[in-house]
Amino acid sequence: MIGNRTTHRTADGVRIPGTWRHAFINNGGTYYLTDLFIYADGLIDCWGLVTVEEFERKLRSGWVATSFPEGAEASAHGLASWKFGETWTWLTPELLLAEVRDTLDELNGRPGSTGRCLAAVDAFLADRSEANRAVVRAAYLAIPETRRHYALGDMDRKDQPLRALVAGPGGTLEGSPDGVVTRETHEEAIAYFEERARLIAERPSRRPSDGPATSHAPAVHLPHSYPRRRAESPGKVALRNDYPAPIDVDGTLYPSVAHAYWALSVADPDERAAVAAAETACAASGLAADSVRHDGWEHARSAVMTTLLRAKFSQHPDLAEILLATDDATLVYDDADSLFWGDNAGRGRNWSGRLLELVRSELNARRAGIM
């Protein structure tokens, strides 16, 4: 992949992963240093989203620049400007396009040009015919030249064993500084790959010792709603903070988590009581919005919400079962009134969903006898 830099964009509420690298855009004869974003769905942002084919046309036209004429003006968007003197560049349109195609493969979990070359090496080792060597050679030359030195991931040997295997005894590889490959050098390369294959086969599985890094259950979406009364089988709506499930907090009974949250946010005791007694969670929110908050509320609110959710699911075992039934799914909670508590099509921080997942983990821990 072009780099370990990660980014994303949101399309129709879906997070599209990507990465980026620096590039120059030639706009009206001035070369602007900017960022080139590559996304897993195949779109590339070079001052506008384009497909790979459109990106190639921009490369060929010089809009995305890989060469710079002496004396041309350059700008780094308000940071600096200069004129090119004598320049050395490592990229060509072909190389940059190949790097982008590799990055798209790797963003989607497919083997890039390096992976395809190493697969061809495995096939050659299994059947050491010249036809298979030719396949390895073609695959190696398909790796962008800027990345060929490190196809093996071996900083000490770089790609010398691979280059020797590609060339074969008595052969040379275009651009190679090593000269003619001797039979001894070729045999050393074969031994290198055999040892490498053995080490890979014997390598212990790198599974996380405490479980997978990502959930296996499909994400659960909790859309914004206004539940006004309890239902016999509420389903996932029962996980919402405004679902009418009364909770006792320090001797005070609140009609819902939302009632308690908004009441506890209010500094004045009389106004707090009015919020707690509001007919609906929406009304409670409105009353709280017109009241003075506790000092430092924004720094305490996550802890308060955690306490309220724990109370809800410990005091309502039937609702706890609904939460536990979500398994290890990501809980995507929408809140039309808050980008802090809601996910809101990827625009918000989803803290309600995150804290529900925390409480779910605590319920699982108690059920397993861990806590």
Brief synopsis:
With 371 residues, the chain is α+β, with helices and mostly antiparallel strands.
Description:
There is one protein chain. By secondary structure, the protein is of the alpha+beta class. Helix content is 40%, strand content 14%. Strands 1, 2, 3, 4, 5, 6, 7 and 8 form an eight-stranded mixed beta sheet that branches. A hairpin with a 2-residue loop joins β10 (247-249) and β11 (252-254). α1 runs antiparallel to α2 (93-107) and α10 (297-315) packs across α12. The chain is elongated. The protein starts with 6 loop residues before the first strand and ends with a helix. The mean pLDDT is 91.
Strand content: 5-15%
Q: What is the gyration radius calculated from CA atoms?
A: 30 Å
Strand count, sense and barrel status of the largest sheet are: 8 strands, mixed
Q: Average pLDDT value?
A: 91
In the predicted model, the low-confidence regions spanning at least 5 consecutive residues are none
Q: What is the helical fraction, as a range of percent? A: 40-55%
Helix-strand layout with pairing:
Layout: E1 7-11, E2 14-27, E3 30-39, E4 44-45, E5 49-50, H1 52-61, E6 64-65, E7 73-75, E8 81-83, H2 93-107, H3 113-126, H4 130-142, H5 160-167, H6 183-202, E9 220-222, E10 247-249, E11 252-254, H7 257-265, H8 269-276, H9 281-289, H10 297-315, H11 317-324, E12 331-333, H12 351-367
Parallel strand pairs: 3-7, 9-12
Antiparallel strand pairs: 1-2, 2-3, 2-6, 3-4, 4-5, 7-8, 10-11
Helix pairs in contact: 1-2, 3-4, 4-5, 5-6, 7-8, 7-9, 7-10, 8-9, 10-11, 10-12
